Structure formats: C-alpha cells, structure tokens
Amino acid sequence: MYTKTFVRLTAAVLLLAACSSGPAATSATPSSAAGTAAATASASATPRPVQKIDFQLSFLPLPQNVAYYVAQAKGFYREQGLDVNILRGNGSGATANSVDQGQVLIGEADMPTVVVARNQGQKVKAFMLMVDSTPQAFAAIDPAIKSPKDFEGRTVGVASGSGDANLLPVLVKAAGGDPAKVKVQNLAAGVYNSALLNGQVDVVPAYTNGGFISLKMQADAAGKSVHAIASRDFNLDIYQLCLIASDKTIDQQPDLVRAFALGTVKGLRYAVQNPTEAVQILTAAIPTLDPNATPLQVAEVIKVVDTSAFRSNGFGVADQAKLTKTRDVVLQAYGVTATIPASDLYTDKFLK
After folding, report:
1. Under CATH, which architecture does the 137-234 domain have?
2. How far is Cα 70 from Cα 282, in angstroms, rounded to an integer?
3. What pTM value is reported for the model?
4. What contacts 50, CB < 8 A, 6 or more positions away?
C-alpha cells in the first residue's frame, strides 16, 4: 500500500512540475529521464516494513512443524511483513501460558489444551488448525490388542497429567471398554519406546505422524512387530494441533495475526505440494531430526492436513460440529461440568 501510494505521489509531482514549466519541460535530457525511471523502479522495489516476532512451538521442533519452517525458508512470512523467530516449547500448557501472559504473541498448542486453559481463565484462542484429523494413537506389540477396549487387563505406560493420560479413559470408553480395568503406569515420554520394546508395558502413546514411525523402525531393527491403534478409528477424531493468540493480541493486533495465518497457510500448502523439498528444508533447519524417519513422518503430516474438509473449507478452517465435539470430549476427559462457548475457543476470521 505504501509503495503504491509513493509511486502515485511521485507521478503526481512530476506531472505538476511538467505543467508549471510549460513546453520546455517536455525536452527532458536522456539522463534525467533515466533518473526518473530509476527513481520509480526504486520506489516500486521498496520492501514492506517487517515486524520481528517470536513464535513458540508446543514442544521440540518436529516434523509436524514443517509448515512453519517452509514458510520461513521460502519467505512466505516475510511477504506478509513478518520476521519470525521460532522457539522451542515445553508442552502445550506452557506455551498457552506464555501466550496468555504476553511473553510471546503467537504460539502452537493442541486444542484440548486451549479448552482446559480457557476453562481455567486464560484468555487464549485458536485461530488456525494445523491438522484436520487427529494423529493421536497408541502402539502395541501384542497382536491381540486391536482396540482401546483391549487395553483392559493390560498396562498402559503414559506420562501422568499429559493430554494422552487424560484422554485415555475417554478413548477406552468410546471403544466400549471399562477404563477402571486398565492398568496405568506413569512413564516419562522419553522412555515410551524402550518400555514397550522391553516388555515393561503393553501399550504406549505413539502419534502416527511422529513417534510411531520412530518406534516402528526400532521395533523392526529388534525383530519385533508393532502396530498403531489410532484414536480417529474409534469415534475420537478430535481437533488437536493449532495456532493460538491471546484475546488481547487478536483484538489489538489483528493484522499481525492474519499475516502469520496467511504465511503459515502458504507454507502448509507448499509442503503438501512439494514434500521432498519440504523435507530438505526441515532437516536443514533441524539437524537433530532422523533423516530416515523424517520423510515418512512428513508424509503422515500431509495425510492429516490434505483432507477433503480442508480442501473444501480451506487449510486451517474448523468444522463447527467437530469443534463442539472436541470441546465436549475434552471437558468430559478432565471432569469439567461447565461449558465453554465454541466462539471462545476458535475463530476463523483470519483465514477468510
């Protein structure tokens, strides 16, 4: 906008000078004409003002974050006037708190965390979904464990207080099982794979777009067969990863929120259309990623993004019925009886 206005003002000034100086003004020398052209070209090339912002992930940088790194590397954020610094997170809850307190303006969290945070009085809201179908899953080696109902009588290793731990009884119940018959053992997330492979537990969380692929590669190397039990296959396909901002930021800096959303959508779309390049960008930005697992993990990320709903409604746009179901499932999982308006949890106004 500023560039176009400057160009129009430049042209107006030149025209006024020509009119006031009469016929002699039409005999401009080649050098002055070239200078005018150069000045106009320079004005057209004037870069858009850039705002530096910190963006906090929900956890460590992972393949699920491919859209942000593609948007950063391809200049999609800068096109929107943003210079984005990507920070690691320490869990969705910690990121939601940072956003609520104004320590960062934009963050990434899972939707269940947004529901819980809002219930606890934090003023955070999602403005873009990063997945349409949940990648949440549990993994088992025993072939007899085919459904969450089969967790009855088995030991599930899961970090106490985590989203997976809180959703576990809801998932078992949705599959027709009795959560009271499931043995739950508190485990740090970092030892899930080894605990399962060593027979310490029977079931562990393993997301299809991340942990499960690494687990399967380890199991294959050990001569064992592991399989996933996906929540979406048992009537628990809820929204999870999303972008969040505080109510204050949404109200007072809507252009910033819109710019971040549009840059991310472009990065997401580019990753879907160019997965090989997206993997290259991701592994260059995050050298700690497993080069063998990352292409498979990005392919799984694309599966839960490139859906008919997102293609129809737009990347990041929520279906209201599914959003309401997500809220109700989470409130049930955390034993909350109060309700929260869906409009307090999510807005799509920056995507339209």
Report:
1. 3-Layer(aba) Sandwich (3.40)
2. 7
3. 0.80
4. 78, 81, 82, 83
What SS3 state is found at 52?
A: strand
Question: Could you tell me whether strands 106-110 and 51-56 are parallel, antiparallel, or unpaired per DSSP bridges?
Answer: parallel
Taking alpha carbons only, the member of 2, 244, 221 closest to residue 111 is: 244
List, for the chain, all residue ranges whose pLDDT scores fall below the cut of 70: 1-48
Average pLDDT, the chain: 87
pLDDT of residue 47: 59
Q: Which CATH class is domain 51-133+239-344?
A: alpha beta
CA neighbor of 318 nearest in space, from 163, 167, 131: 131
Q: Residue 105: count other Cβ atoms within 10 Å of its Cβ.
A: 21
- The pLDDT value recorded for residue 123 is 96
The tokens for 21 are: 């100086």
Tokens of 86: 């990507």
Domain definitions of the chain by residue range: 51-133+239-344, 137-234
Q: Residue 244 phi/psi, 5° resolution?
A: -130, 155
What value, to the nearest 5°, has the Cα angle with vertex 145 and ends 143 and 149? 160
DSSP state of 49: P
Specify the pLDDT at position 1. 41
Contact 92, 163 (CB under 8 A): yes
Q: Which of 311, 308, 319, 305 is nearest to 348 (CA)?
A: 319
Q: What is the pLDDT of residue 3?
A: 37
Decide whether 51-133+239-344 matches 137-234 in CATH topology. yes
The reported pLDDT for the residue numbered 70 is 98
DSSP single-letter state for residue 346: B
> How much is the pLDDT for 163?
78
- Report the alpha-carbon distance of residue 244 to residue 256 in Å, rounded: 12
- At 189 the pLDDT is 82
Query: How many degrees, rounded to 5, is the angle at CA 214 between CA 209 and CA 215?
Result: 105
